[in-house]
Every structure is written in C-alpha cells, then in structure tokens.
Amino acid sequence: MESTNLAVIVLRRRPDEGERDHVRILIVLPWLGLASGVALAAQKEATVWLRAGLLLALGLVLFGLTRLGGRLTRAKAWDDACPVPGPARRRARPGRPPPRGC
C-alpha cells in the first residue's frame, strides 16, 4: 500500500508526465496513507522482519540457481547440437547463431 501512496505523490509532483490531471486527490491523503503504513510496519516484532529477510534471501538464492541452471542447460544443449572443435568453438556462444560447420 505504501508503494501506491508514494506513486501518487510522485505523479502529483510531475504533472508534465502522463495524462493531464490523472491523479485528482488531496495531496494530504497519500501522505497520511504513507505515514500510517510505515507506523503499522514499525510495530512488527524483530523476529518477523528477520524471518522476512531470511525468506527473501532464500528466494534470491533460488532465483540465482534457477538462472544459472537454465544457462548451463542451454549451453549443454547447444554443445550437443554443434560439436565444432577449435577456434570456431571459442567464438560459439549460446544465443548467437552457430558458426559455419554446424
């Protein structure tokens, strides 16, 4: 919710971007919403924030492993499809068209 209030504040400060009068609301309301969201988040215990941080870190590690695994799988499939030895092999990379001789 805080991100929505912050977006409204930013859009109100940049009238030249987007449609004219795209946000019609008193400027005090998003500020009150932002302040109340921060106040509610500050009331959480430290263990809740620690647990959230650990879950976020775990998600980032899993994301990195998935990206790395996908990259390695694509490289292995490309190597199997184009077994070119020598200098052409060094120029060959996944995502590029295969060199001559494949």
From TrEMBL:
The lineage of its organism: Bacteria, Bacillati, Actinomycetota, Actinomycetes, Pseudonocardiales. The chain crosses the membrane at residues 23-42, 48-66. Residues 83-102 are annotated as: Disordered. This is Uncharacterized protein. Keywords: Membrane, Transmembrane, Transmembrane helix. It comes from the Bacteria.
